[in-house]
Design brief:
The protein is α/β, with parallel strands linked by helices. 48% of the residues lie in helices and 11% in strands. The strands form 3 sheets. It has a 6-stranded mixed β-sheet, with helices on both faces. The chain is elongated and about 130 Å long.
Length: 647
């Protein structure tokens, strides 16, 4: 259901920088290693001491000094004898050429090289002059080509590295406008080419109203004349609002697949950088590219990260974020009526958005995506399980009934967890048992291997039996599904209830019964052990929070009346609640506290009375939990089977 769109392949340059850099590097290494080699004989490396000894023996004819290196030629033994004969016969200097010719004919002098030691040798020149060695000196300089290569090579490598890394970054992001190493002000939006999307409205289960709204926009993009002839204009923006996991991003992907137009996707956080003004520049770049390829669709995920109300908080807003928001507002105002560019955005915090962003003319439509109902959950499960082998007992309709409150992402995770559990058991098909176990794992957490004493186990059993007994006795309460004292997640025991039907509104009596059920475990502990434990900490927290909402937000207190007070609400902006003045007096606050306490105390008394009247049922359930650790709905009904009491 939540398959991703394949990104468009980036356009590759005809010039391959990577190949060029490798060839250049290899050539430089070869040139450096073999720059002194040639067709002639290679010089022989000899020690400096050996060099001086050869000079004393008259074997060295000439040398060239380059810095610390000495290059020269020395005669072989045969050449040396011929030279001695010529000198002994009184040959003059004019016969030197004849001697060299004869030496060449008999093998010629041998080139050599050596290195002078770091210490000075003042007697070297005297030695060379006494033995008639021709001495030449050269500056230690490299060729102009080598100096040019050494100077330019670091810059070539640095520039090539930046070019190569920027290309790789563009390929990984699959997007547009990365701008190379200096393109931080370019848009990071990912561009999906037309016909590249495999996700359509058929892959989205439920959300029929949202699909109808988007279908109208898709038709406008495909055939604008149908609407323009009646004066209709394309909506500039559409805002998806809903809790996490309901399919906001999936709907945008499906619209891109249906419209068959260029689709630009980006998260709101990708606009923000350390440098002020970068986000605004990226917004301009993204909208410019979208307008150039119109008709097109822009999708901004997590809009609340940049669209929060300006000037929020005690210290004011962030300059970079506000400049980015201002640029988005300006770009959406600058749309021409004939520019077929639609901006989609998603958020789960519509209450924090700037009013200027959600006014008509910018985000013209707000599409609310709710948690899927039973029918939609069944369709979502079928979509995610269509490529998985299911056993005959894998009843997805029954599973949809037991997954109240699951989002589309939760259901996808449920199917995947069931497949993993079945594979772990070496099964060839996924059965309902695997789905049920995966559901327990998601809702209640993993089983914990903890050593619990018999005393603690008994305390937990009576605590959970108290919850279950009160839930079974109260009419209108959600039916029990399972009770377990196996530690899971952060709880030592769990009592699970599943609503029989979807509720759009909740009555006051139902909420009071919920509080009584939450406090039933504490009441059972007090009745059985004449004491209470810390196991009711989470129950007390939830009961108090529910009572506070009843009093302050839903007007369900006769003493307070039909009035709403902002108490217990978490403000999205840090520090703003400190600056805002309270909208109620201290006397009202005291009255609110009294009403919250009265509701919880009354419901605890009600739970205590029910358990005392059905003490045998409490004992039966507790002993069953101690023995079996987990009781199903059928087992609970067979143990107590009480008559429902009207309250």
């Amino acid at each position: 259901m939540n398959s991703e769109l394949p990104s468009a392949q980036p356009r590759r340059s005809s010039f391959n920088w990577q190949t060029f850099l490798w060839i250049l590097l290899i050539w430089m290494v070869v040139f450096y290693l073999f720059r002194g080699t040639g067709a002639g004989p290679q010089p022989r490396n000899i020690a400096y001491t050996q060099f001086k000894e050869r000079v004393r023996q008259g074997e060295v004819t000439q040398i060239t000094i380059r810095g610390q290196e000495i290059h020269g030629e020395m005669l072989t033994a045969q050449n040396r004898d011929a030279s001695a004969e010529q000198k002994g016969s009184g040959a003059d200097a004019g016969q030197g050429g004849e001697i060299e010719k004869k030496a060449d004919a008999e093998g010629g002098p041998v080139p050599f090289k050596t290195v002078k030691p770091a210490v000075t040798d003042p007697g070297l020149m005297t030695l060379l002059e006494n033995h008639g060695v021709v001495v030449k000196a050269e500056l230690e300089q490299r060729s102009w080509f080598w100096r040019l290569v050494v100077t330019l090579l670091p810059w070539v490598l640095i520039i090539g590295f930046f070019v190569y890394s920027s290309r790789k970054l563009r390929e990984r992001m699959g997007g547009i406008g990365q701008g190379g190493p200096f393109g931080f002000a370019k848009s990071k939006a990912k561009r999906f080419a037309p016909q590249a999307s495999q996700t359509t409205f058929d892959d989205v289960a439920g959300l029929d109203n949202a699909k109808q709204e988007l279908t109208e926009v898709v038709d406008f993009l495909k055939e604008p004349s149908k609407f323009e002839r009646l004066g209709g204009q394309l909506p500039k923006g559409m805002l998806f609002v809903g809790p996490p996991g309901v399919g906001k991003t999936l709907m945008a992907q499906a619209m891109a697949g249906e419209a068959d137009v260029p689709f630009f996707s980006i998260s709101g956080s990708e606009f923000i950088e350390m440098l002020v003004g970068v986000g605004a520049s990226r917004v301009r770049d993204m909208f410019a590219k979208a307008k150039k390829e119109a008709p097109s669709v822009i999708f901004i995920d997590e809009l609340d990260s940049i669209g929060r109300a300006r000037g929020a908080g005690v210290g004011g807003g962030h300059d970079e974020r506000e400049q980015t928001l201002n640029q988005i507002l300006s770009e959406m105002d600058g749309f021409s009526p004939h520019e077929s560019v639609v901006v989609l955005a998603a958020t789960n915090r519509p209450d924090v958005l700037d009013p200027a962003l959600v006014r008509p003319g910018r985000f013209d439509r707000r599409i609310t995506l709710d948690m899927p109902r039973k029918r939609a959950r069944h369709q979502i499960l079928k979509i995610h399980a269509r490529d998985k082998p299911l056993a005959d007992d894998a009843d997805l309709a029954r599973l949809a009934e037991r997954t109240v409150g699951f989002s589309g992402a939760d259901l996808r995770n449920l199917v995947n967890e069931a497949a993993l559990l079945a594979a772990r058991k070496d099964k060839s098909r996924i059965g309902f048992e695997d789905f049920d176990e995966a559901r327990d794992k998601i809702m209640m957490g993993l089983e914990r291997d903890e050593l619990i004493t018999e005393e603690e186990k008994e305390m937990i059993a009576y605590h959970e039996a108290g919850h279950a007994l009160v839930a079974a006795l109260l009419p209108g309460a959600d039916p029990l599904q399972k009770v377990t004292i196996i530690p899971r997640g952060g709880a030592l025991g769990v009592t699970e209830q599943t609503p029989e039907k979807e509720r759009y509104t909740i009555r006051r009596k139902y909420l009071l019964d919920r509080i009584a059920i939450m406090l039933g475990g504490r009441s059972a502990e007090r009745i059985k052990f004449d004491d209470i434990s810390t196991g009711a900490g989470d129950d007390l927290k939830k009961a108090t929070d529910l009572a506070r909402r009843m009093v302050c937000q839903w007007g369900m207190s006769d003493e307070i009346g039909p009035v709403v007070y902002k108490r217990g609400e978490q403000h999205p902006f840090l520090g703003r609640e400190l600056a805002e003045e309270k909208d109620f007096s201290e006397q009202t606050a005291r009255l609110i506290d009294q009403e919250i306490k009265r509701i919880t105390v009354d419901m605890e008394k009600k739970a205590t009375a029910l358990i005392e009247d059905h003490r045998d049922g409490l004992e039966t359930l507790a002993q069953g939990l101690i023995e079996h650790e987990t009781l199903s709905r059928e087992e609970i009904e067979s143990m107590i089977n009480p008559e429902k009491e009207e309250n």
